[in-house]
Amino acid sequence: MTKQHKVLVTRQFPPAVMKRLQDSFEIIRNEDDHHMAADEILSLASDVSAIMCDPTNIFDAKLISKLPESIGLITTFSVGYDHLDAQAAREKGILLGNTPDVLTDATADIALLCMLGAARQATSAAKTLRDGKWGRWSSTEFLGVHMSGKSLGILGMGRIGQAVARRARGFDMNIHYHNRRPVTAEGLEEATYHETLEQMLKHCQFLSINCPLTPETHHLIDEARINLLPDNAVIVNTARGPVVDDSALIDALKSGKVAAAGLDVFENEPNLDPRYLELDNVFLLPHIGSATFETRDAMGFKCCDNLDAFFSGKPLPNPISI
Ligand code: DGY
After folding, report:
1. Which residue, judged by its Cα, is nearest atom 2 of ligand 1?
2. What is the position in ligand 1's atom list of the atom closest to the CA of 98?
3. Which CATH architecture has domain 6-102+293-311?
C-alpha cells in the first residue's frame, strides 16, 4: 500500500508507536536518535506534511518561520509545549497538537515520589547503604520531615495538580492551591484557593509546582517567594525547571530555609546546575514524570491520533490552542 503522507519524526519513540507511524505514514526517522538541530530539521522537512517531535526539539519563531509551506501540523510527544512558539505557528497556519490526560497519573505519582524522596532524605540514606556505609540502626540518623498531615500548596491546579491533590489527601495533607481561577472538581472540595501565590506560600509546608512554563512563570519561585514559605518547607518540581530560580533554591537549601527539594525537571536539561549534586537534601530525577511503558505508548498514540485526524481533514483530538 502506498503511504500517502510524509511525516518527519525527530526522535525515536516506543516501538509500538514507531510501528503505528510506520504502518500509516511514510516517515523520515531519526535512526540513531541524535539531537536534530534546526538546520537538520529544515533540510529534512522540505517535502513533509507534518512533524512529530518532543520537548527536546525547540521550535522557536525563527525555525517555524523557515518551515516549508507543506507543513500543516507539529505534534509533540508531551503535554508541555513551552518548546513550541504557538504564536508563530498560528501566524504560519501550522496546527499544533500535544498529549494531555494520559500522563497525568504517572506525573502525579512522581510528584509524590519527589515529595517523599526529598522529605525523607532518600538520597543520603540510599547512598549510605549502596556505599556499604550502613552501620548500626540509629534513632538519630536519616531523620526527615514528616509528610502526613502537613499542608501542601499546589502551584497550578490543572490536571496534574488535581491528581497530586487527590494523592496527597491519602496522606491526610491539607491542600492549598494557587491557580488563575478556583477549580471545582471531585476530591478538591476541602482545598483552599488562594488568589495570589504570595498568599498561598505562607501555608506551604510542602510546595508542589505543577504549572506550565510561560513568560509569566519563568523564575516565579525566586528568593523573595521562597522566603515567604514557612521554615523547613519542602519544594517539589515536576513541571518545568525554569519555573524555579536555581540559585535562590540552592541558597535556601544550603541555609536550611528550605529543608529539602525533590526535582524531576531542571533549567537547561540535561545540564542541571551542578551545585545541586553537592547537596544531600535534594532528591533528583532525570525528567521521568511520564516514564512508564503504558504512559509513553499512550502519549505516542495521541500523537498518531493527531496525525490521523489532520490527514483526514478532521479536527485534532488533542490540539494546542492559544
Ligand atoms: C511533558 O509531557 O510535558 C513532559 O514533561 C514529558 O513527559
Report:
1. 78
2. 2
3. 3-Layer(aba) Sandwich (3.40)
